[in-house]
C-alpha cells in the first residue's frame, strides 16, 4: 500500500496557512518545519525554494518560529517530565536540527542548578527501577541510565551506593571504554 503524494501548494499564502497549522499542532524547529514544507512545493525549482524561505522568514518575524525558545522549552520539559539527563536532551535537539550554540545555551540554562545524581535517582524512581540483584540486572540499569543521558561518573556513584559488587562495576567500566 503506497501513500498518496502530498498536495502541492502554489502560493505563499497556501504554504503559510499550512505552516501555521503545523505549528498549531505542536512546536517545531526551523529545520523540522522546512522538512515538512519541502514536499508541499516544487523544491527543485528556485521558486519553490524561495517560497519556503519566505514563509520561514515571515513566521520568524511574527514570533511563531524561534529555535532558541523551542530549545529552552524542550530542555525544561524533558528535564521535568521525563527526568532525562543533559546528554539525552542534547542529542534529541541535534536530531531536531537546532544549532549547536542554541543547544548549549538551553542545556546550560535548564541543567545549571540540577544535581545529576538526584535527577538520575528521580528517573529510576519514575521508571520503577529497583536495586539490581545480579550482574545482568546491574548492566541493564547501567545501560538504561546511559540511554537516559546520564554520565558514567553519576551512574557508577549510584551503583556503588547500591552496594553493587566491585567486580561488576569493573566489568561495566571496561564495557564503557571499549569502542
List keywords for this structure.
single chain; 179 residues; mainly alpha; 10 helices; 68% helix
Describe what this molecule looks like in 3D.
The protein is an all-alpha fold. The chain has three domains: 12-61, no CATH class; 67-111; 116-177. Helices cover 68% and strands 0% of the residues. It has helices spanning 12-25, 30-37, 46-61, 67-82, 86-95, 100-111, 116-126, 135-147, 152-161, 166-177. α1 crosses α3, α7 (116-126) packs across α9 (152-161) and α9 runs antiparallel to α10. It is elongated, with a radius of gyration of 22 Å. It starts with 11 loop residues before the first helix and ends with a helix. The mean pLDDT is 90.
